[in-house]
Automatic annotation (TrEMBL):
MF GO annotations: ATP binding; ATP hydrolysis activity; transmembrane transporter activity
Stated name of the protein: ABC transporter ATP-binding protein
Domain ABC transporter: start-end pairs: 18-255
UniProt superkingdom: Bacteria
InterPro entries in the cross-refs: AAA+_ATPase, ABC_transporter-like_ATP-bd, ABC_transpr_LolD-like, MacB-like_ATP-bd, P-loop_NTPase
Keyword Cell wall biogenesis/degradation annotated: no
SUPFAM superfamilies with a match to the protein in the record: P-loop containing nucleoside triphosphate hydrolases
Transport as UniProt keyword: yes
Keywords: ATP-binding, Nucleotide-binding, Transport
Database matches in Pfam families: ABC_tran (PF00005)
Amino acid sequence: MSTPVPVPGRASSGGIAARARGLTKAYGSGETAVLALDAVDVDIARGRFTAVMGPSGSGKSTLMHCLAGLDTVSAGRVWIGDTEITGLRDRELTRLRRDRIGFMFQSFNLIPTLNALENITLPMDIAGRGPDAAWLDQVIDTLGLRNRLTHRPSELSGGQQQRVACARALASRPELIFADEPTGNLDSRAGLEVLGFLRDAVDNLGQTVVMVTHDPGAAAHSDLVLYLADGRIVDEREHPTAEAVLERMRLFAGGATRAAGPSLGTPLRGGDGTAVGEA
Ligand SMILES: Nc1ncnc2c1ncn2[C@@H]1O[C@H](COP(=O)(O)OP(=O)(O)OP(=O)(O)O)[C@@H](O)[C@H]1O
């Protein structure tokens, strides 16, 4: 009998929020084809904060998009909870994304003509579902948005806008939140705040978060870092510190990481608090 090979990401006692087997994504064809993901197996543990890191072009965003059903796969299978999403029709996939997944992007993606509260509840309004009032209250208070609810995005700072986007992602109490560089457009103080809220969402609200980032300091807020290189998960680390992540990133080809910008180096919880990224 062969010994089972451990799958990156591993389960928590809470089970699996998403998983992929043999996930392969190629762009283009023939000579110009790019293999963005190369037969990736991964388990995303429920109730945990998972960070995805790797050099530019390693496939981080593609992995996120395929796991979240935002992009089709070339081969392999993907599940959200127990639902296989590969093979779902567009309409079913749209409904699944709307009902079961929350998204945060680097560029906030708020509607400029709606105020903060309207932005937060928009996905539920579109779905024709009223929010759970007690949960929504808790999300708004956790994110410190109570006195900003009537403001439009242009009347909010970048950090406040991302907090609104975070509240929008949380409002329907999704099974899983995917965040693609959520701190990429924020100064380090606002970025730290947003990471703290994502951490709170996992620790205090029982949410599951998957975050793509370039920043070892941001990754240090997670429970587990998955390292991608050339479309494969090549390593993982539990309870990462910023130093350990930076060190691992240095091992990638050329030693170059895009961590040279302002780093969100001081985890609000755990880690050793040393600022990195300026190294
Ligand atoms: N729509 C597309 N068409 C063709 N190639 C693409 C497309 N999207 C991504 N790729 C290629 O797939 C590979 C993985 O891209 P991806 O955006 O997932 O990497 P990444 O790790 O998120 O990069 P970055 O850190 O720079 O955002 C890259 O080689 C990229 O050029």
